[in-house]
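Entry 12.
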Amino acid sequence: MADRLSQIAGQLNYPKGMLAGQTAIITGSGQGIGAEAARLFANEGAKVIVSDIDGEKAQTVADSITNEGGKALAVVGDMLDASYIKTLVQAAASFGGDNKIHIIVNNAGYTWDAVIHKMTDAQWDAIIALHSTAPFKLIREAAPYFRVKDGEPRCILNVSSTSGVHGNAGQANYALAKAGVTGLSKTIAKEWGPAFGVRVNTIAFGHIETRLTQAKEKGAFVTGPKGEKIAIGIPEATKKRTGDQAYADIPLRRPGTATEGASAMLAICSPLFSYVSGQTVMVTGGRNM
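Predicted 3D structure (tokens):
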């Protein structure tokens, strides 16, 4: 016990950053919360793998980190591609220089909404695959780098949503997938915590300002698994209808920023949360408390 307390104390002194020397994979980190997380993790000394399907955006984030003196590598690919997941893990282990991976943040995803009676199999299958199956496959592939006893911290953070905690009309697929990662997190925490000290948590975001919550009329879209052009965002008519009442049930009376979301990710993966595992941390500005 004394040795463990000394180890934690040493981590908390972090003269070179809270994540100094650690290699972190952050999926969906070409933009939004993921990109902010990549920058924050790098600022705290992590060697960051910027994983995204958009090569140009991923490289821009990686370049911005290296230009500031940090360490980052863009590894471009589709999380629904099993071969890419293998490539991603191999690249991460090699990039660190020590054949180690310390952190995985499963952040990649998008929404493809419809009410239940109009939801297609394609919508259902794509969202479940991306938000539940892909995180599992990445963690399984990286298992040899987490099931180790070298005294170094290991942390997995799966990104969920209030939709996965409370449900949300029009998001049966997304709600199920996001609820699923909570069960996945708890299971891995129970399997890998006792022998290997791996911490696994879920973070459930509320209303964070990203492309998923901007006006749909701005034209943001993602490409589906079969080349579908999927519009994302909230219709302007909905935004206008809710007006000032949009944040009435948020005690802080505003949406969160991508940087605030990423900061919560950093806190959970840092030594500050060294005794927190198997939990779902709500980042909502107080909504649904």
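Annotation: Residues 106 and 135 are 6 Å apart (CA to CA). The radius of gyration is 19 Å.
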